[in-house]
Amino acid sequence: MTNLSRRSMLGGATAVLSTAIAMPAMAQRANPATVVSNPPRQWGRGAPIAQYPDPDVITLDPSFGAVAEGHAVIKRVGTGYQWAEGPAWCGEGQYVVFSDVMGDVQHRYIWETGEVTPFRRPSFNSNGNAFDFQGRQISGQDFPRRVVRWEHDGSMTIIADSFEGKPLNSPNDFACHPDGSIWFTDPYYGGQLSEGHPDQGQGPMTPSGLLNPMIGNSGAGMIGSLHQVLPTQIYRWDPSGRLAVVATGQVPNGLCFSPDWKRLYFVWGGNLAVADVVGTGLQNIRTFSDGMIDGVKCGFDGHRCDVQGNVWSGSTAPLGYCGVTIWNPAGKAIGRIRLPETCANVTFCGPKRDWLFMTASQSVYLLRTNTQGAGPF
Length: 377
Fold this sequence. Notes:
Layout: H1 6-11, H2 13-19, E1 57-59, E2 75-90, E3 95-100, E4 105-110, E5 116-120, E6 126-131, E7 137-141, E8 146-150, E9 156-160, E10 162-163, E11 166-167, E12 174-176, E13 182-186, E14 233-237, E15 243-248, E16 252-257, E17 263-268, E18 271-278, E19 281-289, E20 292-293, E21 296-297, E22 299-305, E23 311-316, E24 323-327, E25 333-338, E26 345-349, E27 355-368
Antiparallel strand pairs: 1-25, 2-3, 2-27, 3-4, 4-5, 6-7, 7-8, 8-9, 10-11, 12-13, 13-14, 14-15, 16-17, 17-18, 18-19, 20-21, 22-23, 23-24, 24-25, 26-27
């Protein structure tokens, strides 16, 4: 099974880059450049901004001009994280919440001041986040392997931690529907030492079977499953409390709805898939994109749609192709945003919801666009 992700890239980057990817001249250098623009841009605070238009915002199709803002540059607004993931915009609070999964902290980017501050510590290795139509935060916690909702009074509700009496794997990403349902993916990434706790014995993320999940376990008594028992699946949680499988058979990751709620986009076995939303289920699952651009595999992680129906997706790829890829509703690549590190996930944010917030490994970035995200986030 092929599932190109940041985990597989980081774990086997040398083999992948030397054998699996055919690249254009820029990416074929024996010693690839450590920056993606020429002249090299500086990312630190106070550094001069790039020229207009930003040379790292790349048009692949003329239609991209309608959603790209020419007078905007990529800004790095925070750095020093271990594994930045799961951004979500709180319209009422005017902040972006995101996870440092391996750092076990949730952070907030506060719109008014531009500060990044710790929000929840510990976060129990939270990964994906979202806000529902009532403005409540939804989070996946890798350590106890569950989905939680933060209520307006500050209390926490456990939305799901098991299916048919069997514990979930590690709920990863979320899409909230107007009918009150929450759709989420459940891969096995939390079953490793750095992102939660390893499986007891052998597991998909612990092939040696030698790691002890109880060492350093500050969550004794609430740890959740000690071993994967369910397949990796996509679920729909109903406000009645019923949990149902809507897709199974591959390893899922990020997911989002189209602006009209008639399609669901989701990472499925390494590609980006799309399916028709019919009632409370999915039909006609098919490949939306294989992520190939210029002969380079741009692996998918998390993504969001704009109001035109374009899909903005984090790109796991070699330097020069890591960042964000943008696809029109027909599955054609229309643009790219190059970042100096792999980007896991994105969300639209800001009072007008026209800024793209990008969680990229050790840093988080902002770019203004000429479109708006299809909320909520």
